[in-house]
Amino acid sequence: MTDVDPRLFRPDMAIEPFHDGRHALPDMALMRESIPYCVVIPEHEIALFTYTWVDKDNIAGAAFGVWGRGLGRDPISVRLPDREVPADMGFDEWRIDNFRMAQDLRFQRAEVSWKSPEAEVDFVFEAFHPPYAYSSHKDGCPSYCAADRIEQSGTVTGRLRIGDRVIDFTTPGHRDHSWGRRDWDALHYYRWLQSQAGDKLSVHFWEFYALGQRQVRGYVFKDGVMAEVTDLAVEWQGDEKLNQKSFQCDVTDEAGRTTRVEAEVFGVFPLPAAANFVLNEGASHITIDGHKGSGWMEMGWPISYLDHVAKAGVY
Predict the structure, then answer these.
(1) Residue 92: helix, strand or coil by DSSP?
(2) Alpha-carbon gap, residue 298 to 47, rounded angstroms
(3) Structural domain tally of the chain?
(4) Cα gap 286→228, rounded to integer Å
(5) Among 214, 190, 223, 205, which residue's Cα sits nearest to residue 261?
């Protein structure tokens, strides 16, 4: 067993470090593994992500997005075509064309780079708290989402280049890692938050509605302790297309703490996930208990529902 990190509120929240690597996926429908890295540069009002995935047949791809008010132009969206990759290529040295991701397989450090004509980014991610696994929840990780899912915040140091513009940054960021079945169409709707203020505060939750039920997973890391979310109240304000503009959250955790998260959204990036499901990434200025930070709320919607609202109007 892995040594128990004293920063964990419950010892059974610990997860073995090998889960930072690639998993063997069973030969079943909708089996996939994916890892996004999320970076917000609040002083420039720019956000970016890299996202890679691979399925049970070793068919893999990757995507890269850059957006926000500070970009001064339409979002940059790049996607590499799916293709077969070696079965033994691991996440310690993952390469697809000019995209590279190298995780240390210890949940501590990773190097990521993406080079393309549209934009380039190179950064190092260094975790500042232990990974949180959805399997540590009393009800586990719902099987339509994944066999398990990991969430973790860290400090990200790197350089973004867009044409002649170069931005050097050191900022908090976030990553997740899931493996197993992903059935987007099982989900009615959801909101997923990653947020940080410096390297001592991080709040994550995923509130999702599926099969007629509400589910919540997540954690609060503050005062040097990571504890699981036990209760959540969210209010949000959006536009006529249901793009998020701001949100406010009161998060209660099993350590008995209540944490206040407030946000002003400075850019929404639509990331299609399936034929009828889109992830609207809302990059934001965020405060956690009054401390300035950043992050984003991803809101997942059936595309047909958003189309209906756009035609009918917000009631």
Answers:
(1) coil
(2) 13
(3) 1
(4) 20
(5) 205
The answer as to whether 283 is a domain residue is yes
Encoded amino acid at 214, one letter: R
For the chain, what is the total number of helices (H) and then of strands (E)?
1, 19
Q: Which residue has the tokens 């970009």?
A: 71
Tokens standing for 189? 């709707």
Q: Is residue 15 part of a domain?
A: no
Q: Which residue reads 């132009």 in tokens?
A: 73
Find the radius of gyration of the CA atoms of the chain: 18
Spell out where 1-56 has E strands.
Answer: 31-41, 46-55
Residue 5 lies in a domain: no
Q: Which domain holds residue 58?
A: 28-312
Q: What is the pLDDT of residue 313?
A: 83
- Residue 16: inside a domain: no
Instruction: Note the pLDDT tens digit of each residue in 288-313.
Output: 999 999 999 999 999 999 999 999 88
Q: What is the pLDDT of residues 246-298, one digit of tens each?
A: 999 999 999 999 999 999 999 999 999 999 999 999 999 999 999 999 999 99
Q: 208 pairs with which residues across the strands?
A: 190, 215
Q: Where are the alpha helices (DSSP H) in the chain?
A: 303-312
Q: What are the beta bridge partners of residue 124?
A: 111, 157
CATH at residue 189: 2.40.370.10
Q: Count Cβ atoms below 10 Å from residue 282 Cβ, excluding itself.
A: 26
